[in-house]
Amino acid sequence: MSDGVIITVEIVIKPELAEQVVASIPAMFDDTVTFPGFRSIRVVRHKEESNRLLILEHWDEEANYHAYQAWRRERGEGSRDHLLSMSYSVWPGLVGYAEA
After folding, report:
1. What is the pTM of this model?
2. Which one is the CATH code of 5-91: 3.30.70.100, 3.40.50.300, 1.10.3720.10, 2.30.110.20?
3. What DSSP string runs through 25-93?
4. What is the domain partition of the chain in residue ranges?
5. Number of Cβ atoms within 10 Å of the Cβ of 35
6. Residues 64-84: pLDDT tens digits?
7. Which of 31, 51, 82, 94 could covalently link to 17 via disulfide, CB atoms 3.0 to 4.6 Å apart?
């Protein structure tokens, strides 16, 4: 099995919608965890900018992530109307790993 790929997504939510969006995130995981190629997801909130989130997703392959995003769009999800900005990066090369 390969190390897979890490996808990072940084989003900045419109401040007036931040709490609503943050509250809805855990429910999204119900579908995400069953999608083919999914390994893990972690969402963290910025210390000083509470409307800024970083999403770290671990997938078997980048294609799995794109298929998942397409599936969300087909279901009418994935609107970005609540966002001020969004960017994503792909990290396919594991350099090192440690865990307690």
Report:
1. 0.87
2. 3.30.70.100
3. HHHHHHHHTTSTTEEEEEEEE-SS-TTEEEEEEEES-HHHHHHHHHHHHHTT----TTEEEEEEEEE--
4. 5-91
5. 14
6. 999 999 998 898 776 677 889
7. 82
